[in-house]
Amino acid sequence: MATMKASVVWDGPKRDVLALLVEPTTQPYGADPSEEDEQVVLYRVLDEHQEATGVVVGIEIEGFLDFDRWESLPKLDIRWRLPGHEPLPLEDLLRRLQRELRQQAPAVPQGR
How far is CA 55 from CA 31, 37, 59, 62, 70, in A? Predict the structure, then answer.
């Protein structure tokens, strides 16, 4: 299983959108909304015709703190490594991030 360095951005808790991207992303990529789950958008490498390929370089989940449809995530043959953490499969990494962000969310003042 390949390991990819990644970065994460969470735009929440008010908006609650999490994006995870491979770093560095050297090829052009585009959004590919999931047909299985309206909360999930995959970022896929684009070919020379600007069409999405099967290569996933990121994921975005709207409503991340309450996300529970883990079965709708793609099964990828890569591990994602965030700085300072061990590489994990996509679902395991997202579950860990969700636990961490849920703990932080109550401490964030409302209205920001």
Answer: 12, 19, 12, 21, 20
Per-residue model confidence (pLDDT) at position 109: 52
Give pairs for 36-41: CB < 8 Å, separation 24+. 36/72, 37/69, 37/72, 39/63, 39/67, 39/69, 40/69, 40/72, 40/73
Question: Tell me: the pLDDT tens digits for 77-96?
Answer: 999 999 999 999 999 999 99
Q: Is residue 112 part of a domain?
A: no
Question: How many structural domains is the chain composed of?
Answer: 1
Q: Measured between alpha carbons, how far is 66 from 42 in angstroms, rounded to an integer?
A: 18
- Domain membership of residue 56 (yes or no) is yes
Domain contains 111:
no
* Residue 86 in tokens: 């061990």
Q: Which two tokens stand for residue 88?
A: 């994990």
